[in-house]
Amino acid sequence: MDVSIRFRREMDKGLCRDTNPTAAVRMLPTFVLSTPDGTEQGEFLALDLGGANFRVLLVKVMADGEQKVEMENQIYDIPEHLMRGSGTELFDHIADCLANFLEKLGIKDKKLPLGFTFSFPCQQTKLDESVLLSWTKAFKSSGVEGKDVVSLLRKSIKKRGVRTGTNACYMEQMRNIELLDADEGRMCVNTEWGAFGDDGTLEDLRTDIDREIDAGSLNPGKQLFEKMISGMYMGELVRLILVRMTREQLLFQAKTTAELLTTGSFKTSYIYGIDNENNEEGLASAEKVLRGLNLDPSVEDCIATQRVCQIVSTRAAHLCAATLVAVLRQIRDNKAAEKLRTTIGVDGSVYKNHPEFSRRLHKMVRRLVPDCDVRFLQSQCGSGKGAAMVTAVAYRLAAQNAERQRILDTMCLSREQLLEVKRRMSEEMVRGLSKQTHEQASVKMLPAYVRSTPDGTEHGDFLALDLGGSSFRVLLVQVQSGQRHKAKMQQKIYSIPQETMQGTGEELFDHIVDCIAAFLEYMGMKGASLPLGFTFSFPCHQSRLDQGILLKWTKGFKASGCEGHDVILLLKDAVRRRQEFDLNFVAVVNDTVGTMMTCGYEDPKCEVGLIVGTGTNACYMEEMSNIELVEGNEGRMSINMEWGAFGDNGELDDFCTRFDHIVDDSSNNPGKQRYEKMISGMYLGEIVRNVLIDFTSKGLLFRGKLSERLKTWGIFATKFLSQIESDRLAMRQIRSILQHLGLTSSTIDDSVLVKEVCSVVARRAAQLCGAGLAAVVDRMRENRNLNQFSVTVGVDGTLYKTHPHFSSIMQETLQDLAPQCQVTFQKSEDGSGKGAALITAVACRIKSEGQH
Ligand code: 0WK
Ligand code: BGC
């Protein structure tokens, strides 16, 4: 347990950017980001260097979902002199072996992808670039350390014209690998645990025998943990112990032999025969080995030798278990899992050939982490197949990334495209304002009859309704003159059931009046007759403040018998039907105008209102001289742009993707509100859902498994976009959102991709919104013949307020496309209902001034 805890500390040092350079356990990123998902296919070559044997392999991977792999391999010798010679000779030899292999298989002309298992500590900067940090085991070729082994191999192959240690790797969360900037997904980390203890962490456990081995090794002071547990040194450990015991007259009548004193004379493979459950066989094997070393062992000597072998290999198995457990704990903590269920792929001659090693390792692992369900899977085909699989996965990932990027690129807008959106919006604004082209214009530029802002003399109680956003509110706003910032407000939120939104107009307005009655009751003002301001967030033609002819429903509303009607009259009729109270209908305003007024009450420079919520829209103060639909040229009046309809005449067709068309076709107003359907909260989730369906159907996501729930309209609520993109949300939380959507088998990689889709869709929405706003503020600047123009925009809407990046991306785009405008954004805290009440207060003041 203590060794395991020490190793865990070393792992953290290796993962941490500051301590990595001096960490003994280097925790090297491998740039292997994913494990096979069964869709890999193709033929791959693999080289496997560094274990007991050097292999060249041809691996055929079939994407038949059965993980079937066909393999041909050839073992080639790496002569000792090449291990210690020059690196060029070593890599030329490797290239020769490869050429020989290709020749044999008659595939010399095939240009196959190659995976290279190079089992030495390497600093990788990408999957196919790997700099050797230091040789280990029996290798010491010159001119290789500090070099990229892939380019050395490439050079030899171009020229050509074609082991025994211990280590572990595991899939680590990217956010824990401080050497890399990425935060999302996982990457395989090569722990290089052979070097555990090189910084003295194991000094209290290392014995004099360990120090003797190290002193006699090719790399003293290095790979100390490896020298305590791996096959290259296990035999030598036993030999040195036998020598020590002999010299202390404990064995072989204190007589050593030249063989016993020869380094490496006691092979690790000897231990496999001696440290045998079947004692008899083990002792016989011990005697045979000792006689082979020219010793004349007694039975006691054989028993003692067997005991030494048991102790050396048991220590190795237990130490290996301790470090393995540290890795298992790291994975469990990363997953925040109660119980970890995982499989460990194992290879190596000691694990495979030592009769007791694996049992002892498994047993100690289970003792140290009884709460983990660990399966050990012995690799049958060596890591060469693994290298081929890594190559196959890399190929699959590369192909999938390319396809995903190709699709996502259709949703990325360039600066030129955004400038074009701005230009076309400006053009449509002019067409909307002009009497001649107003009817055809997609952006209706509706006069809103708000021309002045409160002057502080307003006072009284006002009722306000706020319909059209994600919730319906009834408000009482009490305005005291001279108390500019102290308008008191009480409000209650009421729901508008879907069937009421899409029923008859009478039912809808009767429901609204029911809510007013309930509110007056709740406020103890039953029967009160107050001036009313009505925020009605839909396109209305107005010829005065207290009239609003509904042009068309948008968002989720479709109540019959309303379009083409004055909504004030519809409300009046409903009040009349109820016969319980009366109201003084003073104003109907759009939520953008209400929001502008609410913020304008605090900041007189607020002359633009913006909503990015269920729907999207903007209003601003336009020169009366430009509003051809209204008489008079003096001063300014607010214009409800209804920019949600921008694109309904095809202005955005060259920016629309097939996902936008799918969302529009499945909406309740196809062909309408095209700009809104690329920006607002009611639709962003749907765009994402359709991209995810497309990716899944192409096998680029969720392993191609499409869940029924994901096929459900509206299931991917836009709030998920905001949650998924929040920096605080860990990948596993994204996974729980996906599980909620019935995507129970999603992987971390899937979560990373879903997050990327959400960010691409939200980024485009924010940029399009920024381009539209740039057209508005630049027009106001030109209207006022200003070189520099500063203005405040009052903004409201759930998407703008809750999405972690929408507002900043929109403001960046606005600043870039309208650099001569300094725009301040003021979030409306009180909603547009207050604005409607203030507009009502102003209208009442003007009316009462007019009567005196
Ligand atoms: C709050 C305003 C309301 C507006 C809404 C828009 O008071 O008038 O319609 O914001 O945001 P949503 O609720 O659609 O997200
Ligand atoms: C409506 C606008 C409203 C906007 C924001 C749009 O669908 O047409 O009138 O301002 O949503 O709520």
UniProtKB/TrEMBL annotation:
Membrane-spanning residues: none
PROSITE patterns: HEXOKINASE_1 (PS00378), HEXOKINASE_2 (PS51748)
Membrane topology of this protein: Peripheral membrane protein
Domain Hexokinase N-terminal: 3-163, 405-601
Enzymatic reactions: a D-hexose + ATP = a D-hexose 6-phosphate + ADP + H(+); D-glucose + ATP = D-glucose 6-phosphate + ADP + H(+); D-fructose + ATP = D-fructose 6-phosphate + ADP + H(+)
GO cellular component: cytosol; mitochondrial outer membrane
Enzyme Commission identifier(s): 2.7.1.1
InterPro entries, sorted: ATPase_NBD, Hexokinase, Hexokinase_BS, Hexokinase_C, Hexokinase_N
Keyword field: Acetylation, Allosteric enzyme, ATP-binding, Cytoplasm, Glycolysis, Kinase, Membrane, Mitochondrion, Mitochondrion outer membrane, Nucleotide-binding, Repeat, Transferase
Hexokinase C-terminal domain: residues covered: 164-393, 608-842
Subcellular location as annotated: Cytoplasm, Cytosol; Mitochondrion outer membrane
EC category: transferase
Superkingdom classification of source: Eukaryota
GO biological process: glucose metabolic process; glycolytic process; intracellular glucose homeostasis
Family, similarity comment: Belongs to the hexokinase family.
Job of this protein: Catalyzes the phosphorylation of hexose, such as D-glucose and D-fructose, to hexose 6-phosphate (D-glucose 6-phosphate and D-fructose 6-phosphate, respectively). Mediates the initial step of glycolysis by catalyzing phosphorylation of D-glucose to D-glucose 6-phosphate. Plays a key role in maintaining the integrity of the outer mitochondrial membrane by preventing the release of apoptogenic molecules from the intermembrane space and subsequent apoptosis.
Assembly with partners or alone: Monomer. Interacts with TIGAR; the interaction increases hexokinase activity in a hypoxia- and HIF1A-dependent manner.
Protein name (database record): Hexokinase-2
Native organism: Sparus aurata
Name of the encoding gene: hk2
